[in-house]
Automatic annotation (TrEMBL):
Pfam families with a match to the protein in the record: SLT_2
Signal sequence segment: 1-30
CDD domains per UniProt: Slt35-like
Taxonomic lineage from the root: Bacteria, Pseudomonadati, Pseudomonadota, Gammaproteobacteria, Lysobacterales
Source organism per UniProt: Dyella halodurans
InterPro entries: Lysozyme-like_dom_sf, Lytic_transglycosylase_MltB, MltB-like, SLT_2
Full protein name: Lytic murein transglycosylase B
Length: 337
């Protein structure tokens, strides 16, 4: 028996009811993020926080395609000859010199306390956020949900960061979690600290009971210096020095930047420096494609420490060279006075 067509008023009523159900269901029946239930269970168990409140917070987070696009094309994928000009510009150097001189007293007190030169504290802030001018506009919660729950290549790392963010006490956050902004990777503040770095290395240097990495220069400077100190910075030790390769120098490939050989071993393989160095100093070698051909650098423990901030040797060398330029610029400006 054929079906009987519904009357026009009936069809309109059904359509209206359907739209009403959709409107009512949207805030109640919103699809949760993959793995959200397990994450909430873990955070609630570890902290005693309300699962209902955690779910409400995560339900408001948005997966951002632009974040997935950004992480697929990091600047560190460029060769050194293209990477260096991004950070070693006249403006960034001059701004760094001005920043150092403006905040000299606080910077040098912090440097003395932690044993980390002030110019490296400034260089980190210069490379990361152009001295606090660009701390990122992504919601940190969106960034970490996107990368922790929707980006399989590095999901383990970013999920851990998301969990840490949800577990941090209010005293270690610069405001409510869903108001925090930062980079596409979820890093916050002038020094771009990930949640685990805030937890482990953030410092309440101004003593106000909060770690504020956006508005408190004492907290910002001390946290960067503390990060370096806790990772093994050697006060007064070298960072990186240019090397020359003999025509028959042994090709060397390194997996990371940790010092792997005594300097005399690298010299035996055909690499030398114009500067006298301790032949037994633990050293590594970076071979980089520079603007005028291959560049070779002896790198030391302090270079390796910078790569704990960002594992790319290009990043570490950019920080080192910017720090040296800033220090020289400060010396020249002081001499003119």
């Amino acid at each position: 028996m054929p079906s009987i067509p519904a009357s026009l008023p009936t069809r309109r009523l059904v359509a209206s009811l359907g739209l009403l159900l959709v409107a009512v269901c949207m805030p109640v029946c919103a699809q949760v993020h993959p793995g959200q239930a397990q994450l909430v269970s873990e955070v609630a168990k570890d902290t005693g926080k309300s699962p209902k409140a955690l779910n409400a917070l995560l339900d408001r987070a948005q997966k951002q395609q632009s974040i997935l696009d950004a992480i697929s094309r990091p600047a560190e994928g460029k060769p050194w000859k293209e990477y260096r000009p991004i950070f070693l510009t006249d403006k960034r150097i001059n701004d760094g010199v001005a920043f150092y001189r403006e905040h000299r007293d606080l910077l040098e007190r912090t440097a003395k306390q932690y044993g980390v030169p002030a110019e490296y504290i400034v260089a980190i802030i210069g490379v990361e956020t152009s001295y606090g001018r660009n701390t990122g506009k992504y919601k940190v919660l969106d960034a970490l949900v996107t990368l922790g729950l929707y980006y399989p290549p590095r999901a383990t790392f970013f999920r851990d960061q998301l969990k840490t963010l949800l577990e941090l006490p209010a005293s270690q956050l610069g405001g409510p979690i869903d108001t925090l902004t930062g980079s596409y990777a979820g890093a916050q503040g002038w020094g771009q600290f990930m949640p685990s770095s805030i937890r482990d290395y953030g410092v309440d240097a101004d003593g106000d009971g909060h770690i504020d990495l956006k508005n408190s220069l004492p907290d910002i400077f001390a946290s960067v210096a503390n990060y370096f100190a806790k990772h093994g910075w050697q006060t007064g030790g070298p960072v990186a020095l240019p090397a020359q390769a003999d025509a028959a120098a042994k090709p060397i490939s390194v997996g990371d930047s940790s010092p792997q050989w005594p300097l005399e071993q690298l010299e035996a393989w055909g690499y030398t420096s114009a500067q006298p160095l301790n032949p037994g100093a633990p050293t590594s070698l970076q071979s980089l494609e520079g603007a005028n051909g291959m560049e070779y650098w002896f790198t030391f423990q302090n270079f390796y420490v910078i790569t704990k901030y960002n594992r790319s040797p290009l990043y570490a060398l950019a920080v080192h060279e910017l720090a040296q330029e800033i220090a020289e610029g400060v010396r020249m400006a002081d001499a003119r006075q």
